[in-house]
Design a protein that fits this description.
The protein is of the alpha+beta class. It has 11 helices and 14 strands. It has a domain at 2-186. β4 and β5 (81-83) form a beta hairpin. It is globular and about 65 Å long. It binds iron/sulfur cluster (2 copies).
């Protein structure tokens, strides 16, 4: 069912939906970017239509709802453990097609990777999605190459803003009644999606061991400063570490937290006895890239990367992950690796 709404009527819909749910969407944070007078688009809770940034691509992904940067899992005392409480309300996340495909990757890692992660599942069970249509391709996107440019389902409704009006394709019957009560008109609506990006990548098939040892990775030992930004903006990076916070000197009362981690940061692969599996930034880059476009596929049957291009946008050293994918493909095919 398709509906056309004004900005004010969309706000009224959000207020009705928000009576029993939290709504999480990309928001343009004016002046809160990395440099003076630079904006950043990151996720936040919203209550009104103008708060939702539908035109720009978000610099950060939606994933902090599903995988919080710092999540208290449970509290412990000397003889008992209590799971942390959580907000039981449903959450609706506004996201684009690539990010909706990223949810499939998060689900694979946390729900289908031999075990079900209960701390992820209890949040995931509360989350639904609203699809933001893409009227154009953005800088650094390569969703078409990754096959994530279009979402065929898995969302409650889609939204496109065209000429100051909001166009919705509503899949959910309960929400359709709310949209219908505020709609200026009803008509067939289809979420927009892109069919071409400026950036194109070719995903290699099977990557031989020789490519793991190829000198192409050495460039990143020099260029990458292992800041980890590429991991923290990525909608599919899921690495975490554990922290026990002790309330008492004897270490028997406190809480356990799951905290976001980065495979590009020094110390990530430290093990007992002073060992470190990946010492150079080139080795770390090799691990990250091949996990995203090769190793994950061997386990789950599809690539981890969804081509959102955020890692290229955020890298302070202008390292292009899309270029690296194409270099790997050249190396696999036996061609030149420079460029
Ligand atoms: S954002 Fe760039 S410099 Fe920082 S870890 Fe990632 S690739 Fe390296
Ligand atoms: S690796 Fe880069 S392009 Fe791929 S999903 Fe992560 S942030 Fe997006």
């Amino acid at each position: 069912m398709g509906y056309v709404l004004s900005r004010d009527s969309f706000t009224r819909v959000l207020k009705k939906i928000g009576q029993s749910r939290r709504i999480y969407a990309p928001v343009n944070k004016v002046g809160e970017g990395r440099f003076t007078d630079v904006d950043v688009v990151r996720y936040d809770f919203v209550t009104e239509a103008p708060e939702i940034e539908l035109d720009k691509k978000s610099d950060y992904a939606f994933k902090e709802i599903l995988t919080p940067l710092s999540q208290t899992l449970f509290f412990f005392t000397e003889d008992e453990v209590k799971e942390a409480d959580m907000d039981e309300r449903e959450v609706i996340i506004f996201l684009r097609s690539c990010d909706l495909h990223a949810v499939k990757r998060l689900d694979a890692i946390y729900l289908e990777n031999k075990f079900v992660d209960p701390f992820y599942k209890r949040i995931r069970d509360k989350v639904r999605f609203a699809l933001i249509g893409c009227g154009r391709s953005y800088e650094d996107c390569f969703c078409v190459s990754m096959g994530t440019n279009r979402a065929d389902g898995g969302y409650l409704f889609s939204v496109d803003m065209i000429g100051g009006k909001y166009y919705f394709d509503v899949k959910d019957d309960e929400l359709a009644a709310i949209f219908a009560s505020e709609a200026e008109s009803e008509q067939a609506v289809e979420a927009r999606y892109v069919t071409e990006n400026e950036v194109k990548v070719t995903i290699p098939g099977n990557v031989p061991v020789s490519v793991y040892k190829d000198p192409l990775w050495e460039e990143y030992t020099v260029r990458c400063i292992n800041c980890g930004r590429c991991n923290f903006v990525c909608p599919t990076c899921t690495c975490f570490t554990m922290q026990d916070i002790f309330y008492t000197d004897n270490g028997r009362v406190g809480e356990r937290r799951r905290v976001g981690a980065s495979c590009m940061v020094d110390g990530y692969t430290n093990v007992a006895g002073g060992g470190q599996y990946r010492r150079t930034n080139g080795e770390r880059m090799r691990f990250k890239v091949l996990h995203k476009i090769h190793d994950f596929r061997k386990r789950f049957g599809f690539d981890m990367c969804v081509g959102c291009g955020r890692c290229d946008m955020v890298c302070p050293e202008y390292i292009s992950y899309a270029n690296i994918i194409n270099k790997v493909n050249d190396a696999v095919e036996g061609g030149a690796v420079n460029g």
